[in-house]
Amino acid sequence: MGGTGNTAAAWAALRGKPHATLAELFAADPARHEALTRRIAWPVEPGSSVEAGMRIDFSKTHLSDEALTAFEALAEVAGFAAAREKLFGGGIVNPTEGRAATHGALRGSGTPAAVEEAEALLARMGMLVEAIHEGALGEVRHCIAIGIGGSALGPALAIDALTRDLALVDVHVVSNIDGLALEQAFRACDPETTLIAVASKTFTTIETMTNAASALKWLADNGVEDPGGRVVALTAAPDKAVEWGVDETRILPFPESVGGRYSLFSSIGFPIALAIGMDEFRQMLAGAKAVDDHFRATEGRANAPLLAAFADQYYTRLRGCQTRAVFAYDERLALLPDYLQQLEMESNGKSVTAEGKPVDGPTAPITWGGVGTDAQHAVFQLLHQGTHLIPVDFIASIAPGDDLDPAHHRILLMNCLAQGAALMAGKTSDDPARAYVGDRPSTTFLLDDCDAAALGALIAFHEQRTFANAVLMGINPFDQFGVELGKAIAKQIESGEGDFDPSTKALMAAAGLG
Question: Mind listing the pLDDT tens digit for each residue in 314-344?
Fold first, then answer.
């Protein structure tokens, strides 16, 4: 996917660089925070000259000017510019499956043909959303959105983040095949006013289709005369949806070249639009496009997602860090760490290059995290005084999401900024148990507000960060064969045809599956 240059030599040059402490880096350059802060902005409304945006401060990472120069050289040798052009130009960036990756076109960043197709599909979705809001399918007060993986994590994140004040339709996202998850949604919904949205790229995913069948049965068992008429299908395989029984007028397709974990801005986002309205959904697209535009037009260390990838590679490959923590100091972003886990670990959790050769170092770190300030009283002990070096991302919004005493938000922001400062500075003490080693890295994302555009920008930022990391490592971020083996073995257990190890046989017998 990337270049054919000698990345081994570029990595060798990076490994030869000394590691200055954060204190030393700031002492050498008191204006370091200015040099390593990026801002990406977008209009607050379409056509408005007033902008909102997000500020990203990388200065508390260990990236020195010398290291950044070496990383820029690595990006050049790895063919970053060409790979980026191929991504947005509709080239094959998923070589194992022979596909382009056109998720950027969903928000207007791609070839004219791909953008035109995406806009047509978006308009089709918008007409259905508007028709539902106007009562074309009868009264719709609830929606059970059924999917798994990217078909569920993205909608769940966006709906949780953007409907704290008001939802036009009450949406419940169900992904787990455990019947308890579906039953919980049933209890919250009135079957007479509930729509079922089934999201599956292939429309064959066993967990999704099993849950969908149970949802239709629930409607029928509760007196709904035409359960099938309450189903909307979100899929890249519309023929399969028709075979399953969904009317063509309620099928919202998306391109085969859009991967599941990159599909939030496609028709997979239908439950989001249903909950927040198409105007707000388009604001998500606008925020994402602002990041795409920055990513496409900006070179080297000035490019914020690429700079984030430089930091990621520094810690995984040069400092041996196995994890990266993400803490959202905003309740609206409570599900962001879960979303990023799939985006980053499924994309870059690989052991071979795009050419099928073994990688020459670690790939994706383990992404984990939580919500501040809750996490401070749970896991920050290890971050401050544990033996692991863990780079941390802090994410916060300047504008509050509540109408309570401003003290709430002030305390929240103070804690967020204090944690980054404390991780860097540390504290000496004559009592070893009360000593903090410091020199621990963090990056801070400061949003003007946590609205639809900002959420779209955050998601697109991490998509492009993930892609940039993949190019630097020479791997393919768009396949995910690692999830298939367990599914295949589950089918063998169901059929009873597998040849299993003694432990699995005993567990099958104990669980009543033998």
Answer: 999 999 999 999 999 999 999 999 999 999 9
**Whether the Cβ atoms of residue 253 and residue 117 lie closer than 8 Å to each other:** no
Cα separation, 196 vs 218, in Å, equals 11
Q: Are strands 194-199 and 323-329 parallel, antiparallel or unpaired?
A: unpaired
Structural domains for the chain: 7-100+281-479 (3.40.50.10490), 111-276 (3.40.50.10490), 482-514 (no CATH)
Note the helical H segments in 222-303: 238-244, 270-276, 278-297
Structural contact between residues 133 and 182, judged by C-beta atoms closer than 8 angstroms: no
Residues serving a catalytic function are 346, 377, 487
Beta strand 323-329 pairing with 366-371: parallel
User: What pTM does this model have?
Assistant: 0.96
CA-CA distance, 345 to 315, in Å (whole number)?
16
328 sits in which H/E element: strand 323-329
pLDDT of residue 496: 87
What are the tens digits of pLDDT across the range 212-269?
A: 999 999 999 999 999 999 999 999 999 999 999 999 999 999 999 999 999 999 999 9
Q: Is the peptide bond before 37 cis (omega within 30 degrees of 0)?
A: no
Tens digits of residue pLDDT in 380-395 = 999 999 999 999 999 9
